């Protein structure tokens, strides 16, 4: 080979860029293994795992049959769907150390060159802090649910003499009892009728506009007796939903302007999605009980700092 040919080859190598080294994104797989867990638990596990994946520049793996797939269109470039969970079976399992509802910082400091399965509940907003906008873009309600909920709210507003949603403020109220009352020995607290009365009065004091309160509950009898028929609330506009489908209640209350929660993750996510003023029951668990041990002090890992706690 002549010197001229060598120079020519060198010039060609200089002109052709070297192939880029692409880093294979490793995967995060949340373990949705609680068969009796509801919508709120599933969304928390999804959102926390997604926040961790985004923080570590990893890919989130979910399957087609997760509970929240019936409610939301879940689409994002950092999310991969599979028909089953077999892809997750060989991943390293990382378990939270401090209980269901306390933040464990190790999850956001994992080695991103490995694949992980995360367990268990991940009920803390701190896991997805900084990625809220991205998660809001992913949690888009299915069209049929959104259309139905908008019609329900529109009809309730019309019932009270308003012409459009802009004429009144809507506040969703979630009254959860049922299973929580039965789990008293484990440390669950349920709000009293005084809590709901105080929350309604507090919410009303914050706005000059007429408010329509819309209640969803898994104990309608108690709600009718202690909230709807409460003489102290007779001057407020309050409606109780008669629907028995959790996904419908969830969509309706999430699409109100503001939310009053009771206990549990179902109402928590209504407040988060509504993204207005959220009032919560300040003491969801009793101290020195199993459930009390699952939270950090003052529940600050579970409730957002700008939400309003009422005892």
UniProtKB/TrEMBL annotation:
<keyword id="KW-0325">Glycoprotein</keyword>
<comment type="similarity">
    <text>Belongs to the glycosyltransferase 11 family.</text>
</comment>
<dbReference type="InterPro" id="IPR002516">
    <property type="entry name" value="Glyco_trans_11"/>
</dbReference>
<protein>
    <recommendedName>
        <fullName>L-Fucosyltransferase</fullName>
        <ecNumber>2.4.1.-</ecNumber>
    </recommendedName>
</protein>
<keyword id="KW-0333">Golgi apparatus</keyword>
<keyword id="KW-0328">Glycosyltransferase</keyword>
<keyword id="KW-0812">Transmembrane</keyword>
<dbReference type="Pfam" id="PF01531">
    <property type="entry name" value="Glyco_transf_11"/>
</dbReference>
<dbReference type="GO" id="GO:0008107">
    <property type="term" value="F:galactoside 2-alpha-L-fucosyltransferase activity"/>
</dbReference>
<comment type="pathway">
    <text>Protein modification; protein glycosylation.</text>
</comment>
<dbReference type="GO" id="GO:0005975">
    <property type="term" value="P:carbohydrate metabolic process"/>
</dbReference>
<keyword id="KW-0808">Transferase</keyword>
<keyword id="KW-0735">Signal-anchor</keyword>
<dbReference type="GO" id="GO:0032580">
    <property type="term" value="C:Golgi cisterna membrane"/>
</dbReference>
């Amino acid at each position: 080979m002549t010197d001229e040919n060598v120079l020519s080859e060198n010039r060609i190598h200089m002109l052709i860029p070297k192939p880029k080294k692409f880093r294979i994104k490793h995967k995060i797989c949340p373990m949705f293994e609680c068969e009796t867990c509801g919508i709120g638990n599933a969304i928390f596990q999804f959102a926390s795992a997604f926040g961790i994946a985004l923080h570590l520049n990893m890919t989130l793996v979910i399957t087609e049959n997760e509970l929240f797939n019936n409610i939301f269109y879940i689409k994002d470039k950092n999310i991969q769907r599979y028909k089953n969970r077999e892809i997750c079976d060989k991943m390293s399992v990382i378990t939270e150390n401090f209980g269901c509802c306390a933040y464990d910082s190790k999850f956001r400091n994992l080695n991103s060159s490995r694949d992980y399965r995360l367990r268990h509940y991940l009920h803390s907003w701190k896991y997805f802090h900084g990625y809220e906008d991205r998660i809001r873009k992913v949690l888009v309600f299915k069209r049929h649910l959104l259309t139905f909920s908008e019609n329900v709210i529109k009809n309730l507003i019309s019932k009270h003499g308003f012409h459009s949603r802009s004429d009144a403020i809507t506040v969703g109220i979630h009254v959860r009892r049922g299973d929580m009352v039965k789990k008293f020995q484990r440390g669950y607290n349920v709000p009293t009728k005084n809590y709901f009365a105080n929350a309604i009065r507090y919410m009303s004091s914050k706005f000059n506009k007429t408010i329509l309160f819309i209640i969803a509950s898994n104990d309608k009898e108690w709600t009718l007796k202690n909230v709807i028929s409460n003489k102290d609330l007779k001057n407020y506009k309050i409606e109780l939903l008669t629907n028995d489908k959790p996904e419908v209640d969830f969509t309706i209350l999430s699409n109100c302007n503001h939310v009053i929660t009771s206990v549990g993750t179902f109402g928590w996510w209504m407040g988060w999605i509504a993204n207005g003023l959220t009032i919560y029951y300040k003491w969801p668990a009793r101290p020195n009980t199993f459930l009390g041990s699952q939270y950090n002090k003052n529940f600050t890992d579970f409730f957002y700092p700008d939400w309003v706690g009422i005892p």
